[in-house]
Model the fold of this input.
Amino acid sequence: MKPTQKQSLVEIMRSLMRASLSRRTVLAAGGLATLTAAARAAGGFGNPDLPAEGAVNVTNPKALTDPGPQDPGLASFESAFLNPPATDVNGMPQFWASFNLVPKRIQDGGWARQITRDDFHISTTIAGVNMRLGPGGVRELHWHQQAEWSVVTYGNCRITILDQEGRPQVADVKEGDLWYFPAGLPHSLQGLDPDGTEFVLAFDNGESSEFNTLLVTDWIAHTPPDVLAKNFGVPVEAFKNIPLHNKWIYQSNQPAPSLETVEAQMAAAAGNPPHPFVFRLGEMSPSHETKSGTVRIADSSNFLVSKTIASTQVVVKPGGLREMHWHPNADEWAYFLKGTARMTVFNTGPAAMTADFHPGDIGYVKKGLGHYIENTGNTDLVFMEVFRAERFEEVLLADWLAHSPVGMVAETLNLDPSIIAQFPKNRPDIVPA
Ligand code: MN
Ligand code: MN
Done:
């Protein structure tokens, strides 16, 4: 290397250090500011992380305005997209979606809307469905090739199911309850008095569709009548009034019988399933609890039938943070029920992207990618984490650094060892603990 080249590299390194210092000062100040000329000049050969991103680095404020076409309502809904934190860098595939922005399919008795991989490309493991059944509204007897997990978000619902050994179950569920139907097991849903139900389903395959399920009416209508007669052991004429089109969702005109009555009607010689297909998540004591919130975990260790879906219900109080972490075993499909939140996802590159979440929104984080979820409002934040996995698993950044060689962590991050000693230990999940 010629001396002049060496000299210019040294100069680049020096201006890089000044830029980094300047950026840190700017970030600490927390407002709009301009970088020094040295920092701006630092970008270039051998310096792939620059130019720096974020409004904090803009010198002419006019560059920040958005004079082009826009819908103010939609635009202001996602302030993290409109004005990303200065720490965001390089972008990544969209991990935000919302039931608020997808069309409903409405029929007499209720409605449903869904976000499958067709609409949300990143969501390979989970397809989500939001369904409302009014009182007496019935989701027709059906089955599908995927397993179905659900959380009840409103009202009261009756589920029926038959397992692979001919053992039936009926149960009434309410807000905070879960159900899990293994792939292929036939089931029905019905909204109960006084005001029906609403719930969110997760299929364990991003390609699944609620609008494409195996319906009992369709199969009966598309089977030769003599085969029906033979199959069910009744005369052909018995089927003369069957519907020729499927019902999917319909309004029942009969009052729902008592649970005991239906249990008696469904009883089989094979007996009852050994493990319930419903789980009262809202009623269980928290798996983790700190002064900032709670986490309740339902996976195959306590919700025994739920072999392909693990889930948590997370409550974060105002000011609280679902601490920086990742999941080593599965992608996360997060569904937001109450309050407002902000999540940043971190990937190699480096890449970091931030999104805001409101009730009805979905976030999706690929396996192993770092993220946190912060309560940005004045009320409790409530969300569900859903994983296509047998067990819930997580690694927490603070826990890892608190249980690594102190000198190594101190040197890596240029921190005083006394600071590292203060990091949260023992996996609080919700901080401040
Ligand atoms: Mn189903
Ligand atoms: Mn997570």
About this structure: Residues 325, 327, 332, 371, 385 surround manganese (II) ion (ligand 2) (CB under 6 Å). The radius of gyration is 27 Å.
